[in-house]
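Model it.
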Amino acid sequence: MNIIEVEGLSFDYVTRDEEGNEIERNSVLKGIDLTVPEGQFLAVLGHNGCGKSTLAKHFNAILTPTEGRVLVDGIDTADEERLFDVRQTVGMVFQNPDNQLVATIVEEDVAFAPENLGVPPAEIRERVDYALKQVDMYEFREHAPHQLSGGQKQRVAIAGVIAMQPRCIVMDEPTAMLDPKGRREVMKTIKHLNKDKGITVVLITHYMDEAAQADRVVVMDKGRIIMDDVPRKVFSREEELEAVGLDVPQVTELANKLRKGGVDISAELIFEQECAEAIAALPKKGELRLPQRVELDERVKDVDGIIETKGLTYKYSVGTPFEKTAVDHVSLSIKKGEFVGIIGHTGSGKSTLIQHLNGLIKPTSGEVFADGINIWDKKVNIRDIRFKVGIVFQYSEHQLFEETVAKDIAYGPKNMGLSDEETEARVKSAAESMGITHLLDRSPFELSGGQQRRVALAGVLAMDPQVLILDEPAAGLDPKGRDKILGQIKHYHEQSGKTILLVSHSMEDIVKYATKVLVMNKAKLFCYDDTDSVFQRTDELAKIGLDVPQITRMSHILKEMGTDIGNDIYTTDRAAERLLALIKGQNK
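Modeled.
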């Protein structure tokens, strides 16, 4: 039995004037045919703007078709008299949890939907407790949602839908803002609800390893479905996926690199265990000479710290029952020119820490220094510090407000008191760094999510800060958009020599771009070291809710099987190079 049936679905977003006359029509979905059997776990992939979220909103009648129809358990979603039945059958979890949280206390928020469904109070209590435990938020049941981190809010939003006990749950990027442990917990919850409870799951995601766990994967491009198959078959089409801005699991990418190097290995490997087993079974012709540990970039040696903290401590809601230590006696020194990755579980204190570095938050105790200056010294103008240390926030596109891209980028330099000529030069330079010079005359609100993100970044770069702090700059972007924006940040770092601090939940991104890694755990500094040293501590990172890249996990499994390719395997390129040297004798 199909719980969702989509027949010839087309949908247009229509812009109208004040009189209701049509000004513009944007066709987003084009002739979609899709059936979702009850009990299936379906993953939906596609680049930003391909129509994934628009399709998902048709599944519980947030939107209704321009053409065609959508049936939920046999009910036409266009039938306004049956909307309640549709939405009771299909629950929706959005990417931004703030769009779903309505109450002042977590457990009241989770109880909101069951109360509206007329569930008896005793059963509501059971449902709320069960749902919060499923997403590991039970201990926060009496907290206010606004006191939670973004990832914690998302888990509460998921709990709110679980408490409704719908037959189908549609999740639109539910793990985008979660740490690796949070992602694992949510995926475990999804699979439990699907396999043990029989709930149909439709998961929209940009994480290939999540899609690999589904029963079926649908790939969208330009409003159409272009692939529909089991994960192994879909991910074996790496070049086709790359052409539409997507990627594949790291082990699949590795297998393809080995195949191109002449190794006879399956193209349908998607999990690290099976990949390690396949590699271990291959005959080996060469000998592997593991390299000596690579020293850090020479330019960051023996350089004074540009950012320093001494005993930095910050407490929220001091003197109330909700008092919480967010940063606990953190002392560190970040040198000029470094590219530092900042990682930690959700709520570990990462965002609170970085907001201290340019004076957005004043420490409860301890000191912060920028370029040797105590930023809270009475003689210091904190405004000057903020020009020296720039922060680009999560979902930075929400900071855009001007009529054109050029004006938005110019806002910071103008507030610095720069001349029109200097401002114009700064705008041009920042736009070039982000690859958006062709967009300067456009309205920022007409741009794609990835373009808006680069405009917001350019606005900070135009102030020419000595330190650039980025809080999840690629969150919510498709793989192509993520690689583009992070690649441009890396290029900017190489060209300018400025100090970069990158906060991310993606271990793959951290190891690809950062030379040093700062790890936060439960408000404390867990460690601060070069990338290789940090990610060799696999077991310790796992215990504090973090992870290592999939390719690293595969190399550890491979080592246990007797094939050691080194403890510094974080990229598929490095893994492929070592393995080809071992398997084919292709030493470089």
